[in-house]
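Fig. S4 source data, part A: sequence.
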Amino acid sequence: MNGLLPRPRAVPTKRLLALGIGLVVSFSAICLSILWEMAQKDFQHAKEGATNLVASIASEIDRNIELYDLSLQAVADGIKLPEISNISPELRQVVLFDRAATAKDLGSILVLNAAGDVTLDSRTLTPRRANLADHDFFQVHRARSDVGLFISPPWVTQEGEYLISLSRRISNGDGSFAGVVAGSMRLSYFHNLFRKLNFGAGDSMVLFNTGGTILMRTPFEIERIGQNIKSSQTFRLLPRQQSGSYTSKSIVDHVNRLYVFQQVGNRPLVIAEGLALDGIYADWWQQLWLTGIVVTALGGFSIVLMFYLLAALKRRAAAEGRLAHLASTDALTGLANRRRLDDTLDGEWRRGLRAKAPVSLLMIDVDHFKAFNDTYGHQAGDAVLATVGQCIAGSTKRATDLGARYGGEEFSVLLPGIGKAGALEVAEQIRAKLTAAREAEPELPTVSIGLSCLVPDHERTSRDLLKAADLALYQAKREGRDRVIVSPIGWDKSGKRQVA
């Protein structure tokens, strides 16, 4: 409006900001994805290591218990021999208990009759007089014939030594209960076995029977021996599988761990290793913090750089807008210049051609300007041109109206979509404003105005509109100046040329 340029194209701040944030978020997501994969690999590596260790320990324990079991089976089978009671006590000891000597950490083997009385002892020819019918292993074998090897919960001797009992049933030929052969195994065997292993802080290794009673645990705490952990998750999995893994908080010391468990062969024993999750992810947490610091620094730097770029783009857009304004604006009057007028006139002509709408043009010339300039000087002449520019700007109210300095003391006003009557009204407003200005400055010259109005057609161009307005201007000058002359050239609705 008033010959001013449209606002320069705004910098797409939101899009650039969204793009920058999107890049930072995408980069962060990639880093998080890599870190997540690293965490999964650390977890899987720890799980595989624990699985191998548990399998190895379970195999060793199974081999040793098998040796103990073979010794017990040898005694149970030997005691049934008919001639065993006819040989000397010394030879009977050798026949029945020769394998017991090779079993490390195995205590004495006792033979009990059906009443629970000790009848034979692997360490002496004269066994002590004792009845063990109240012991759990005796009661189990007497009640059931299908138990096989029975491993008891831990118990303490009078000397304070922790043991577990391993026992087998002795049956008569008809399958009836004939007694029990029982041996004891020191828990120190498991303690020494676990002590050889290297555990991280917070890790644990537990051996317990299928009843949930702890037989040995590392880190070793004497009060934990015999504790029942039947409520742990392991026992929810054991009925379905002999080995497995899960993560849970320990019911013993409340540490979050990865547990890997395995049953010891077909024995009623289970071994489980617990790896503290803090230990598994210790290196990963360091990588996470390091990566987080780097990503945060890069993200912050990127955002700062993005805002700096946005500010630079805004400054450039503003500078380009100012340059575009200067390139198409007359510095003296603030109106559009000739270049801007020509470009806008061509565009409005094409628009009017599509819409079949009229386009009007005013050509304005300051009367006797050269004489005024010679009389009052160039500065006064410039002031006159600026005043005329203000009158034009004050009379063109629509956004599509364009006032321009055509050159020297000549001005133009482009009025798209306005017919002759509307254009004539604008022209008279300009003259009226200038007349009002002369009341304060009588020496101000008048203006002559030529008006043309055409409906664009393929047979004419915008140059024809300009030429018609120019001819009307010269006619106004010939008729005495200080007036508006409307060009007689026009077009009817059918597109035929007509004269008003």
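Fig. S4 source data, part B ends here. The longest strand covers residues 162-171.
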